[in-house]
Amino acid sequence: MPVTDSAATDKTGTAWSVRDGLATLDEPAVLLKGALDAVFTRWAAEDGARQQSYPPLLRAEDLRTLDYFQNFPHLGNPVTRIRPDRLADRVAALPETATLPAVDLADASHLLPSAACYGCFLHLSGTSADSPVLITTVAQCYRNEDHHDGLRRLWAFTMREIVCVGSAEAVRAHLDRYRERILAFGTALGLTLDRQPATDPFFEKDGSRTLMQMLAPVKDEYLHTDGTAVASTNNHRNFFGERRAISHAGRPAFTGCVAFGLERWTHALGDLFDGDLAAAHRAVRRWGERS
User: Are 145 and 121 part of one and the same domain?
Assistant: First the structure.
């Protein structure tokens, strides 16, 4: 994988730096990122969403039930440990090596999440409800990428999601509401966002849902003028309801989520405000006070 180191500065100095797709944020970027998350969290609260936090690791056996390794094997970041039988031979040499050889590692039973909503659907497995369920969560997510690009494309990044579980109509209304909110928020800040259907696969490629996805895309992305996708709206139909026995009104529930990449928003607003993240922060806070 190509290694791209990058950094950005504002009036106070270094705002952020990235090495190997891993970002370090200084205070101006931290404050802007927090203000953005506060806006999205408030939207969720206004809709009655419950805040939840999920484990930072996902079991591989659970992800198999979601066709994860058919659709997203390239994104996966397995978590493992040094094999006990290799410790005696390797512990002295470990500080001198740049990598840990695979032969020294145990088989991986868990992965880091590539999206915040996986923990939500695994948590809801086997549950039922008669009215729509709204949940918001934020997570550090990890994706193996073929290249890194500042805050636009990271190995590790922060994702805020707002999830709706219920009927097809409830999910559709949820996503429609956030399409309007995202575009209106961008316009208010002076950020031009272009809504485009995403092409990344979600359902198993030879399944019946794949044709439905081609006819009616399940994911829309909201793109900054440089092509950075800062948010997405995702309609999973009843996929998670069927695979994880999540029921609504006695039938497999429909689900949908709205996702915000917080570092990507920070990048887009830094670009809009010519690197002045303090000014971008003030603009976000002013919008929050008026709305």
Answer: yes
